[in-house]
């Protein structure tokens, strides 16, 4: 296990990049502590896999350094970085038994059979596959194959980091929650440094202690799942995390008052920094309520998603979602919307520009 430091990392697939647009990674500075559980989250093409391949040694970055416990490994090949990687598709040997698949990484490094058996049995027990140790891998279900692939990554005790590259993509949806829970349990038991790459917010938020959200080669926010949900640092984070995502309303400023059309909107606190640029109001649907007074709107859609109801409204040509409980209005009804003030924020050019009252006091 190791602390991983990414220092002023940039990467371009062009031989002589001339602008930021030609960089797949624009600049990344990160510290991941020893034994932590981390996720790289973002849409396809945002740079997640590029960053993972740089950490693993499959790519040498155009600029910057990768440090493991302070040691510069930027130019070391993968076999000298002491890492384990679990891929989107299970990497196992179908002709081998489950036992031999789990034992292979240890035998390949010359470990004695007593040690091999001890580690294989320990991992098999954690994965709940002890009863299939003598089964050939070819006969396993897809979720069990991925379990064995995970076990091959965890069986070694000397790895610096275990990296997961969208490992649940090919797993049936009804089995994903089982493997997500199992992976979280495994991290808590083995205490290895783990990095999980995914475009699925549910996977990232249920696995990781810290989530790195990426967009267009940039890190836009690093935080706990609660921090990302409750206080998005960028409108992209608010939109990408949550279902439905954060409402984004165009606004103007008049004497430091946010105006949505001709309606003033109370913000969480004072504006910090310069407000020159594109200004928007962000508020999550969970903090929008239907009321007898407030912002006039018309209901355009009502969706019952089981645990709550999502009411989609139109206000001055802008779509606003509200998450409510109880009896919903009907499509076409005129309603009024209230925003919870301490959860209503101003964003300038996409970035958070208000300070919470508690922090300002």
UniProtKB/TrEMBL annotation:
Stretches assigned to the ABC transporter domain: 4-241
PROSITE patterns hit by this protein: ABC_TRANSPORTER_2
InterPro entries reported in the protein's UniProt record: AAA+_ATPase (IPR003593), ABC_transporter-like_ATP-bd (IPR003439), ABC_transpr_FbpC (IPR015853), ABC_transpr_MalK/UgpC-like (IPR047641), Mo/tungstate-bd_C_term_dom (IPR008995), NA-bd_OB-fold (IPR012340), P-loop_NTPase (IPR027417), Transp-assoc_OB_typ2 (IPR013611)
GO cellular component: ATP-binding cassette (ABC) transporter complex, substrate-binding subunit-containing
Alphabetical UniProt keywords: ATP-binding, Cell membrane, Membrane, Nucleotide-binding, Transport
Entry keyword annotation includes Nucleus: no
CDD domains reported in the protein's UniProt record: ABC_Carb_Solutes_like
Molecular function GO labels: ABC-type ferric iron transporter activity; ATP binding; ATP hydrolysis activity
Domain of life: Bacteria
Similarity comment: family membership: Belongs to the ABC transporter superfamily.
Protein name: Carbohydrate ABC transporter ATP-binding protein, CUT1 family
């Amino acid at each position: 296990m190791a602390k991983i430091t990414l220092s002023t990392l940039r990467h371009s697939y062009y031989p002589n990049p001339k602008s930021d647009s030609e960089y797949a990674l624009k600049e990344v500075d990160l510290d991941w502590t020893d034994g932590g559980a981390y996720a790289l989250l973002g849409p396809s093409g945002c740079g997640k896999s590029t960053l993972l391949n740089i950490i693993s040694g499959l790519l040498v970055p155009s600029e910057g350094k990768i440090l493991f416990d302070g040691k510069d490994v930027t130019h070391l090949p993968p076999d000298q970085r002491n890492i384990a990687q679990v891929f989107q598709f299970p990497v196992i040997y179908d002709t081998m038994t489950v036992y031999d698949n789990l034992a292979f990484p240890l035998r390949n490094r010359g470990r004695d059979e007593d040690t091999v058996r001890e580690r294989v049995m320990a991992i098999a027990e954690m994965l709940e596959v002890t009863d299939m140790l003598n089964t050939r891998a070819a006969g396993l279900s897809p979720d069990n194959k991925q379990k064995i692939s995970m076990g091959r990554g965890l069986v070694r005790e000397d790895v610096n980091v275990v990296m997961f590259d969208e490992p649940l993509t090919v797993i049936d949806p009804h089995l994903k929650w089982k493997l997500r829970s199992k992976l979280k349990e495994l991290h808590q038991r083995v205490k290895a440094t783990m990095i999980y790459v995914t475009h699925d917010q549910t996977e990232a938020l249920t696995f990781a202690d810290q989530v790195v959200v990426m967009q267009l080669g940039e890190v836009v926010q690093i935080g706990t799942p609660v921090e990302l949900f409750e206080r998005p640092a960028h409108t992209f984070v608010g939109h990408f995390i949550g279902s439905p995502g954060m409402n984004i309303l165009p606004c103007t400023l008049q004497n430091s008052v946010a105006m949505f059309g001709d309606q003033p909107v109370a913000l969480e606190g004072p504006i910090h920094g310069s407000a020159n640029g594109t200004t928007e109001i962000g508020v999550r649907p969970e903090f929008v309520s239907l009321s007898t007074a407030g912002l006039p709107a018309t209901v355009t859609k009502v969706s019952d998603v089981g645990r709550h109801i999502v009411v989609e409204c139109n206000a001055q040509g802008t779509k606003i979602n509200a998450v409510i409980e109880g009896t919903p209005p009907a499509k076409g009804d005129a309603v009024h919307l209230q925003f919870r003030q301490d959860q209503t924020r101003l964003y300038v050019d996409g970035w958070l520009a208000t300070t919470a009252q508690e922090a300002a006091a």
